[in-house]
Amino acid sequence: MLYKISPIEQDAKRFEDFALGTENTNTLEKVSDLRVHCSDLSDLIECLQTYEKTGSGQPVLLWLGNSQVHAINQFKPGEETAATELHRNFQVTSEYFLTLSQPNASLQEHYLLFSYLLNRLPIKRLVLPVVFDDMREDGIRTNLIDIFKDQKTANYLKNSKIGRILIANHGDQDAAGNDMAALQDTLQVRSEKVLNSALKETWSVWVERPTLRGNFLTWLYQFRNWALGINPSSTRKMIPGRFAKNRDALLAILKLAAQRQVKVLVYIPPLRNDVKVPYDIHEYASFKSEMTSIAQENQVRFVDLENLVPAKLWGTKGSTSIGGGQELDFMHFQAGGHRFLAKALFDELKK
């Protein structure tokens, strides 16, 4: 059925980047042909190897973020993100600036990655955006699941309530999200191995299942938005349960950072403000107030960059609905916006 309704277009397509639209370019960039910006476990080894080759022994300044960090709206050849500019800026200070970002990254995922990287890099400073949109996210994406197999990371997570919840929900899953605790060496596992081995050799469609599934889910996403009249300008309400879990993850990050003597800069990211913001204005104000209080109570630096990027540097993106036209983009800006962001963060970090 998936093959009939969802033809294969790109084998390597990353479906989690679908919401970027065609006007935004995912630029996990290199500096002097060296990888200094990665996403998840699929490419993290490249960033770690680059550090060993070029920065080994230098203290690491880690920036964790979402797609705003790695996407450029209306990209033109030669343009760079704030992450690349910041890496170059900090080369002269003998600090190694490393960036990891994933689309719609939640603070739960940042907590997991931060815990994992603390055992692999001499992290001395952390830059952490708190994004209202991403407080609506929950769970851990499949390309990070294998981190739970790392015992040192698990030991960090066990020291917080939210960490124990993450372990309980994901600790016995494989990278596809399957519950391995219940399936270890069962008849189902053995039969699936035989089936996969036989069919992938004789039926080309079998090996394309991930792409077919991704195309189908993309179509469902567009259909849902069309049916419910959802677009980027629609008001996005807070989801209390998910908000609480991400807030707890933020608190766990700050506690762990304090224990490991890592200095933290928390910031509110730039938001398009030439039109009505797509949030309940009272919930958004409450969110910013709570983030400010958390930073103050934990004695970490906090800065609000909401109005940093001028309106002219924001763009549009293709429709996330069936048959729709161009839509306003509230998260991603042009290269000029990245220059504003790089300067603002560099100035704050110099303080």
Structure description:
The chain is an alpha/beta fold. It has one domain (20-173, 236-350): SGNH hydrolase (Rossmann fold), CATH 3.40.50.1110. Helices cover 44% and strands 15% of the residues. The protein contains 14 helices and twelve strands. The chain has helices spanning 2-5, 44-54, 67-70, 82-91, 107-117, 151-157, 161-170, 180-183, 187-202, 204-207, 209-228, 240-259, 281-297, 335-350, and strands at 24-26, 30-31, 34-35, 37-38, 60-65, 71-73, 96-101, 123-129, 263-268, 301-304, 314-317, 327-333. It has a six-stranded parallel beta sheet with strand order 4-7-5-8-9-10, sandwiched between helices. Strand 2 (30-31) and strand 3 form a beta hairpin. Helix 4 runs parallel beside helix 14 (335-350) and helix 5 (107-117) packs parallel to helix 12 (240-259). It starts with a helix and ends with a helix. The model is unreliable at 1-13, 216-231 and 318-323 (pLDDT under 50).
In short:
This protein is α/β, with parallel strands linked by helices and 351 residues long.
Please describe the topology of this protein.
Layout: H1 2-5, E1 24-26, E2 30-31, E3 34-35, E4 37-38, H2 44-54, E5 60-65, H3 67-70, E6 71-73, H4 82-91, E7 96-101, H5 107-117, E8 123-129, H6 151-157, H7 161-170, H8 180-183, H9 187-202, H10 204-207, H11 209-228, H12 240-259, E9 263-268, H13 281-297, E10 301-304, E11 314-317, E12 327-333, H14 335-350
Helix pairs in contact: 4-14, 5-12
End-to-end separation? 58 Å
CATH architecture: 3-Layer(aba) Sandwich
What is the molecular shape? globular
Radius of gyration from the alpha-carbon trace, in angstroms:
21 Å
Largest sheet, in brief, is: 6 strands, parallel
Helix-strand string = HEEEEHEHEHEHEHHHHHHHEHEEEH
Count of DSSP strands: 12
Unreliable spans: 1-13, 216-231, 318-323
In total, the number of domains comes to 1
Lateral strand order in the biggest sheet = 4-7-5-8-9-10
Helical/strand content category:
alpha/beta
Mean pLDDT: 81
| Percentage of residues in DSSP E strands | 5-15%
Quaternary state reads: single chain
The CATH topology, please?
A: Rossmann fold
How much helical structure, as a percent, in the residues?
40-55%
In the CATH hierarchy, what is the class?
Answer: Alpha Beta
Supply the number of helical segments. Answer: 14
Name of the CATH homologous superfamily: SGNH hydrolase
